[in-house]
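Lab notes, practical 5.
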Amino acid sequence: MSSQNSTIEMISWNVNGLRACRKKNFDSFVSDKSPDLLCLQEIKLNSEVIPEDDFGYPYRHYHLAEKKGYSGTAIFSKTEPLSIREDLSDPKHGGEGRGITFEFDGFYLVNVYVPNSKGDLSRLPYRYDSWDPDLKDYVIELRQSKPVVLCGDLNVAHQEIDLANPKTNRNSAGFTDKEREGFSNLLAEGFLDTFRHLHPDVEGAYSWWSYRAGARARNVGWRIDYFVVSDDLATSIRDAYILPEIDGSDHCPVGLSIARA
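Output from the prediction step:
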């Protein structure tokens, strides 16, 4: 990945519908920030409404769900990827457009939209027994050949510091013991939550807020959007940040800067 800059700038954003987000701040944000790599989740597109705009990125890949207006991911890159994979390279997780991997010279970039366990926790067994362990195994396998950057809406607040009301959400989707365990299991295999790596004690740092009861204005939120890296990139991390001032979705963008190899 060649550039004049000393860092590679990456941003991840659950846009909660790309067409809706474009009616708000998406285009101006991307033009202003112009990261080297832009990863989107929950684009909610179908093949007839993929934007013709390239947003300044010569290389882009949309991975759509079979169900129209549902899920979906995309990666925009200024550098041509060496290879592109979908769905953790496993067909059993196909159909919902939940994962894209771009391979570059120095690392793999894995963009995922992790399944929500749902309010009644009906999808928690799939999440705990299948998705989370398979994602862990997938990034471990990738790391055997080069470092890994994993980003996206991981649909879990890992620790109590990562949401405003941990006690009342103890058994809520996104903060169950099983979901938190899945994330812990990933970190235990030699991966870092980059934001907590740099900011271990920062409170009130959230990336998602309910549309109800003015939650965002009151900063009653959750941090469920992440950049996670294999620990061989630890010394390359220059910044990991959240952009809560950027509107356009119920999530805000999160970012990572790493030194160029």
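Observations recorded by the TA: The mean pLDDT is 97. The longest strand covers residues 7-14.
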